[in-house]
Specification:
Length: about 300
Amino acid sequence: MNRRQLLGLAAGVTAAAGAGVVTGPPASAATSHRKPPLLIVHGSHGSGGAYLPLVNELVQRGRVALAVDLPGHGAEGYYPVWFQAPQDLHAMTTEVSPIAGVSLQDNVDRVVSVLRRIGPAILVGHSLGGATVSAVCNAAPQLVQRAVYVSAYCCTVLKTVVEAFQSKENADSLMLKFPPTADGAVVLANRFNWRTNDPEVLSLLREAYMADGTDAQLRAAIGGLQPDEPYGVSLSDCSLQPTTGGRVPRTYVRFTQDRAMPLALQNRMISDAGRFDVHDVHASHFGVMTRAAELAGLLDGLR
């Protein structure tokens, strides 16, 4: 790599294309026409920043890569005083979430606004981010060159994320074993205390999300998660529509060791939707971090 390329890489890693967006460097004239940009949509309670290891790996392969912050997340995220140490457990169980009103349409608007700036892109959704990917494909299929679901929700027969979560194929999900942090009817959001010191909960988190990582990696991953996730995305119909989003080429990356989103559910969604190009990565749910290099290599091969 020559000096000019190194300067371009450094500028790309530190620059931002817009609020809430983590970017890679501009593609060179020789590669831009062959390799579309990649836009990554984060999962529940997360942000674009959590995908920096993946973005960095893609950038080092010469790709334009971005990870968007969805509304109410990342730079706009909700990190209340009661979530800090020492935690106020009463407020945690009673304070109404200020991001409760964020909807699937809000997510679509945010992603489409980025796609209009960078041109048709490969849209990559992880976990709950898959619901937004499908909704964007329905709303603006001309802006999505390929939809990629990375251990993510892809609804068709099962119309909503809630339906998928309640399906028999999800019965083995360890997410079902997490003790509730607060009554959703009171706080108006899916609230979880990622900063708990309960050793049993931490052990369950490790088993569910990062069995292929270390305790330190798990702490780093959950340390950046915010407590609230709006219900709007999970309750909304995000099914691919045959005449719009269903026509977009799609890839599914199965995380074969995922115990948050079991392989049975991933397979059900693949079977329901059909027409998937399927790839396997031996990873837990947070494999986007622990297997970033492998995943980047796979994504780099897509067109």
